[in-house]
Amino acid sequence: MNGNHYDVAIIGGGVIGGSIAFQLAKRNVRVVVLEKDRIASEASSAAAGMLGAQSEFSNEHPLISSMAYPCEKCPSTPCFIPFALKSRDMIVPLAEELKELTGIDIGLVQKGILKIALTEEENEALQRNYEFWRRMEQSVQWLSVDDVAVFEPNVTKNLRGAMYLPNDGQVSAPDLSLAFAKASIVYGAEWQEFTEVLDVAQEGDDYRLRTNHGTVHAGAVVVAAGAWSALFLEKTGLSLSMYPVKGECLLVKVEKPIIQTTVFAKNGCYIVPKKGNRLLIGATSTPYTFDKKVTVQGIMSLLERAQQLLPTIRTAEWERAWAGIRPQTGDGVPYIGEHPHYKNIWIATGHYRNGILLSPITGVIIADLVEGKGSGEFDLAPFSLTRHQATYTV
User: What is the pTM (predicted TM-score) of this model?
Assistant: First the structure.
């Protein structure tokens, strides 16, 4: 073995690639991460960092209702929900482990998420969502308008109802992504920034990856390149039902805290309190584009919706705005598994706006698969790369 040969080469240095590198390096696997830009330079650093295992998902969510695979533990419920809940529960010990290894505080805040309805139609949907989580025996509270006025007095009074999810939380997405990378390096992983993988070819039992900086050889390959994964995988003959979605966000600063918990409207707008009396407001959704320009229309839409939720935010000080490109799949379900035609090419992509939440469990599962241990308690059939064979060819 020479210095250019690795056990595993990971394509993509975002939060998913970093989590996988961390888990593999912990197991004494010789890993290299090949990132075309800087570490976590795309969606992973642009994300709000919400851990919305409950706020994002329910039996009415398109991601859930599209799935035909129930979980053995709850036959009437798609297995994605236990998958998301498990990943959220991994965050607390992970935060401690990463800080001990790297000194990086990932900014874990466990003050819950307040999901509110502004119309009667939204309220009816939110009540169904509340009943769903009660049946799942997960912590959830229904709040009246008066309850919200006590709980978060600065939230608009023009609402119809609210659901509080005490176990959902948030982290600093850039800090989590960087901590995964630094922790993997502590365990011996190598990172090569500004290194784009141009193509991959099989050589016996190994793979040769041609990059803009030379050739890398590896026994296994993991593709975790976010919205760019599909473009790369087309070179291997695999066409995924996947597309980019631009999301614009902005950051403002207030003189003193005006909310303690994340406020998430049923219409998709959210306000996440960050350190230093800052509020992160997101996010727009523009599909089928890699253009990261921040638009006037997008920012105006966010500001208008944010003021509907939190009227006092109108006096906040402007700081900055940005956009990230999120990887969405045709049915909203990530792709996790082995390439259908190449042994030991593994794929973890399409996490859309839940990459931060799902990064801990995805890292463990891919590391287990690479080591030949299987997927443990989770059935990966819903995440199969061949589930859209009717809509694409390989």
Answer: 0.92
